[in-house]
Every structure is written in structure tokens, then in C-alpha cells.
Amino acid sequence: MAEPSPPPASNAGLRILLSKDRPAPSPPPTAAVSSHADRDRIIGVFRSALSRNEPPETFSLQTVQEAIKPQKETVLVLEENQSLENALRTLLQELVSSAVQSGKKIMQYGNSLDSGESNCPITRLLDIVLYLCERGHVEGGMVFQLLEDLTEMSTIKDCKDIFGYIESQQDVLGKQELFGRGKLVMLRTCNQLLRRLSKANDVVFCGRIIMFLAHFFPLSERSALNIKGVFNTSNVTKYEKDAMDGISVDFNFYKTLWSLQEHFSNPALTNTNPAKWQKFSSNLAVVLSTFEAQPLSDDDGKLNNLNEEEDAAFNIKYLTSSKLMGLELKDPSFRRHILVQCLIFFDYLKAPGKNDKEGPTGSMKEEIKSCEEHVKKLLEIIPPKGKEFLKSIEHILEREKNWVWWKRDGCLAFEKPPFEKKPGQAGGRKRKPRWRLGNKELSQLWKWAEQNPNVLTDPDRVRMPSITEYWKPLAEDMDPSAGIEEEYHHKSNRAQLLELIILLTLQHWDLSFQNSLLMA
Which pTM does this prediction carry? Predict the structure, then answer.
């Protein structure tokens, strides 16, 4: 068999090159080595700076200038910021690794127990970067990126200490020059922490994070709002479908009561489906009639007094066992829980969308109104202090309507800029108001008097003219021998006729006043 022919010249690039045939290294690896060397040099400069016991403002800028050697003296450009951020993130990772190997908490690593002073290098690094971001020497989001990396590398116990540092620097982190650059990173950091935490065991820590977000972000921040009104459909209430032996409670009522939670968890489906609404209204009528047929006494209200047993009055979610149905019906807080859910459900149905087409129909509106009145009557009679409780709920729901409509209008900012006068308005001439006194003649008379103030002080205005002075020209017009044409008669002058009517009215008031004095 003949030996195979060598590959053609076109496939020469597929041959394995020997070391002597390989080309010389290209510039990118050299640049990579250079970047690694620069990073190590920056890390070394900052390590030596962390050991200084001076305040960050005394040496932070000098440290950056020594490490980066920026093109500008006090502000870094884009590439310089990126190089500094990569080096600081690597330094932070090394410090956390050293803290873990020492067995100490991350935020307490390096502290001296004898002196009691805080010399933690991680805290010092965060203080330095925070000062540089606040002064605008480096990019404002750099400190937020370091905090995110720190929480991702730490345990839950260490994250509590890290979050304590974040809370202590809340005022500085919330400044406008930092907030605009790092708000999304901070939001992502807090959300990742909330996902890692247990809702049962870390309730306090979850509350601290939520309270921080509420203070850190403005009230009109859209990222913290449920703009689309999405419901938590994963919150499913499970209850028994089949009756158990030895249960004295009506099992049909048990299923009817807990089936309402399916509609409360997603009101949008009930609003768009007439069959679901009919099922809900019929089930609700059964529950309301049962509550009304079994009213609670004052003794039942005292058993669950909010002032004495606060823990028993507030429940995240009630138990759905059929064995507890009898006890729950006697619990005022349980009844209020169900009825308040009804009011919230009705408020959504009455205004579910921006357009009227998305709202309930005419017959559905009447049913909602009647059910809402029935629910409010039941809330009033539930002890203790049923009327006061209902007023509080109505006030809360009214404020919630304003909040909902504010979101639907686009979440307009609450703070409005001050009104600035235009340059022409300051020295411009004030426009005189127009007097509208009922007709053109009176307005014209007032205008003449305004232009000539002496008219108001004329002595002839003090006396009241006699009626004959007005009747005389009219009588001359009516004389046929005078030969005055119709269009030139005084009766065609509306102003003169108006003056005559006013004069007759004043004289009539004068005679009436004199007669009243004589009768008195």
C-alpha cells in the first residue's frame, strides 16, 4: 500500500508546530503581566495605609495618588477607577480570607482586646473608600461594590455586623452624589441578604434591612413599589377537603369559610370571572349570616383583650384545622381578620383599573355595596371597641386609596421645585382688575370714576335729584308738537333709564323706612 501523501498547502495551518516554529509572544500577555504588577503595587500601597492610625481624610487622597499616579491630581478617569476598584476588591478578598483563618469575626479582625481600639483593616478600608467617594476623588459606586462583595463572602453572623456598619454610614451613603451611583447595587445587596435569611429565625435582621431600605430610598422611588399590582399567589391557604370523624362543627361551613382565601389571594381573577364572583358572593353571604347569628358577648372580647395579651391578638396566619373551628369562631380577632380582608377585597373591586371598562358591572356594584355595609355592621358589634376599630380601618383604607391612585398616576415626586419668577415679572406693570358690575354702562361709569377721583367728591353727588328732572325730558319726547323722532328719544338711552330705575328704587326704600319708623 502506498504511503499517504502529505497534506496540501492549504491545510498547513493544522500542523502541530514545534517550539522552535512557534511565533514570539504577543503584547497582550505582557500587558496582562504588567496589569497584575500594577494591581499588586496598588494593594501594597493600601496595605501600608491601613496600618496608619490617622483619620482617613489626612492620607486617603495621598494614598490614591501614590498608588495610581492619576492623570489629574484629584479625580480619576475611567480606566484608573477600574484599575483601583479591581485592586481594592482583591485586597478585600485577601483581608476576609485572613480573618476567616484567624477564627475571628470579620468586622473584629485586627482589633486589640487590651487597648479596646478599633483597628480592623476591613473597616479602615471601607472608611477610606467612603471618604474618597464622598469627596468625588473616585467613582461614587465603588464603596457600594465593596460592600456587596463583603456580604457575599461573609456568613449570616458576620453580615449582621457588616450591616451595622452600613446603618452607621447611612447618612453619608444617602447623599445625592453617592446615592445616584450606588442605589441599584445597594438594593441588590439587601435583596440578596433577604433571600439568604430565614423568615422564622432571622425576623429581626429582616426587619432591620427593610427599615434601612425604607429610610435609604425616597418615598417616590419606583423600585420599591408594586407598580403593576401583582399579587402573591404563592401564599396558598391549605385546609381539609374531607370531613374527619368526631368533629362537631358544620364541615360545609368550614370549607365555605376557608374557600374565601382563594379569592382574597388573587382578586383579579374574581373580578374578571362572573362565575367566581357568584361563588364568592354566595359563600360570603353564608359566612356573614353565621357571624350575625352567633354574636360575641363582652366576655368573649375580654378573653382576647389587646392590652393584656398582645401576642395572642396578632397572627401571621391562622391555623386551618377543623378541630379549631369552634374556638376560632369565638375569637374576636379572627372575625375581624376575615371581615377586614373583605373590606380590602371590596376596595380593589371598586377601582381595579384606570378605565371604567375594567371595573365591576352595575349589578356587581350593588352587590358589593350591600355586602360592604353588612360587613361594617358586623365589625361595629364585635367587642371590644367595635366602632373605634371600624373608624380606624376606614381611615387606613381611605389613605390606601390615595396611595394606589398616586402609583397609577406615575408616582409623581412629592417634592416640587420652588416657583421662580421670570425676569419680566419682577418690574412689570401690574394689570388693573376689570370691574364687571352686571352691564356695560355701570362698568363704564366705574371706569370713569376710577380715572377721575374728583368725581367721587363732587358736591352735586351728595344731593338726590328729583324725579321730575328725569321725567321732564321724557315728557318732551312724548309731545307730538315737539316732532322728535323715535330713535332720538331719551328712552332709547339705556344708561339714563337705568339711573331712573335706581332713583325710583332708592326713593321707594326711603318711603318704606319712614313708614316703618312711624308704625314703630
Answer: 0.56
